[in-house]
Structures are given as structure tokens and as C-alpha cells.
Amino acid sequence: MSWRQVDCHINNLYNTTFWMMVLRGGMSNTEAENELKGTVSSDKNEILFKRFGINYNNEEEIYKKGSVVYRQYQLEEAKTKAELGFDPKTPQGAGDEEGALPQENVSKTQQEKLRKLRRKAQVVVDHVDIIKDEFWERRPWILSGKPGKLPMDA
């Protein structure tokens, strides 16, 4: 998911620059495309700022980060990947249903409690950075598949 957000950011920066060059800069689509060929992010940021007075860093997060949808439980203090039990050699959720837990370690009663807890969780649409570790460290239930604690007001 993190690499997908990077892709969203790269595409939005390109599109923002392209359309400013066309709509406000008077260039044709082909001219703008040719000028942007081979550019890097800093080049596009410079074009936006020098030609159009736009500081891309001030654009709304929804455009730079896209939309992230997840179940929200009570946020936790940041934990390291090792503390979360993250094993980079094992694909997360490989072969499992979404949010499923290993069945051999969980009783039917516990499975039902987990299902109820998941249903009570708030589904959040947010525009946050999921590239850096902090997002994942504060929401360990996403990587573990085990629901967290619900906030007191849930």
C-alpha cells in the first residue's frame, strides 16, 4: 500500500504541473508533455512555483496522499516492526481472508468476539502518510489482522 501512495503522489505532481502548463501556461498538451519528459519531482516543483506561484507542499493532503480506508481502533504508542511481529519475508495476509486470524490458535468464542469487535470499529477515510513507519506502528491491527481496542466513545 505504501508504494501505491508514492505512485499517487508522483502522478498528482505530474498532473498538477501538466495542467497548469496547459490551462494557465497556454501550452498544448503535446508541448507540456514534451517539456515534462525526463523531469524529476524537484523540476516539477520549480515549474509550479516559478511560473505559477504554486507551492506544491501547500496543496491539500487528499491530492498528495490520496484516500486511505481502514478500520480505526484506539491508536497505540508507536511500536517497531519487530515488536509488531512483522516478518518482511512473509507476505502479510498471504492466503488469508481479509482480517482473518490463524484459526488453529483461536476458539470459536474468541473468533465471535473478534468479529463483533471488527463490526464496532469505525471505518475511516483519511488522507495521511502511509509511506513512513509511524502510520503502521500506531495501527498494529492492520498488519496483524487482530483488532485493537475500541476508543471509549465507540
From TrEMBL:
Pfam families: Thg1C. InterPro entries: Thg1_C_dom, tRNAHis_GuaTrfase_Thg1, tRNAHis_GuaTrfase_Thg1_sf. One of its GO terms (biological process) is tRNA modification. Gene3D superfamilies: 3.30.70.3000. GO terms for molecular function: magnesium ion binding; tRNA guanylyltransferase activity. Residues 81-112 are annotated as: Disordered. Residues 1-132 form the Thg1 C-terminal domain. It comes from the Eukaryota. This is Thg1 C-terminal domain-containing protein.
